[in-house]
Amino acid sequence: MAGIGFELKRLFHKKGVLNTTKAYGCMITCTLLASVTVTSFFSMVVTRYVADMLFEEENHAVLPCFWGSTVIMMAVGSILYGIFLLFSGATLVQGLLCFVLFGELIIVWNAMSFLSAIKDYKGIFMSFLTSVAVSILLGALLLWLKFPVVESLLF
Question: At what angle do helices 121-144 and 92-118 cross, to 10 degrees?
Fold first, then answer.
């Protein structure tokens, strides 16, 4: 990750639409990679536990497991990703937006593990469809209001 941080620092200091797009793409990629890496350590254990609890009809144990695993992942991941962001070369606003995106992604990946175990595939699809539509509309609105490009798209 250190090499990626140096590359991001170099991209953020260059001006122009192409360099801004490259920096934005690298930040989103790093955020996705970091969130998937953190959640992958818990995914197998969590889905096995949820499947066992559902089989034993202990449905009351599923939600506390979700929140407990989410809190642990957020705590560990936030420290590690926060250190990465400090050295990435992103501005304060870009860093905060990436940090928020990281937290959201941790919750999303964890929720997908739980929803997959519950087999609510229609709910997963509708959630993603709704979130993509809201993101595109909000990004377009912010760009139309002349907010900075990278911050608008991250937001």
Answer: 160
Asked if residues 117 and 66 have their Cβ atoms less than 8 Å apart, the reply is no
DSSP classification of residue 50: H
pLDDT by position in tens, the chain (length 155)? 445 554 555 555 556 556 666 666 788 888 888 999 999 888 888 888 888 888 888 888 888 888 999 999 999 999 999 998 888 777 888 888 889 999 999 998 888 888 777 777 787 788 889 988 998 898 888 888 888 877 777 77
- For residue 93, the tally of other CB atoms under 10 A from its CB is 13
pTM for the model: 0.70
Rounded to the nearest angstrom, the gap between the alpha carbon of residue 83 and the centroid of all alpha carbons in its chain is 16
Specify whether the CB–CB gap between 65 and 53 falls below 8 A: yes
Contact yes or no for 114/50 (Cβ under 8 A): yes
Contact call for residues 65 and 49 (beta carbons, < 8 A): yes
> What CA–CA distances, in Å, run from 84 to 98, 118, 138?
11, 34, 27
Q: Measure the CA–CA gap between 109 and 129, rounded to whole angstroms.
A: 15
DSSP of 15-32: -SHHHHHHHHHHHHHHHH
Q: How many residues does the chain have?
A: 155
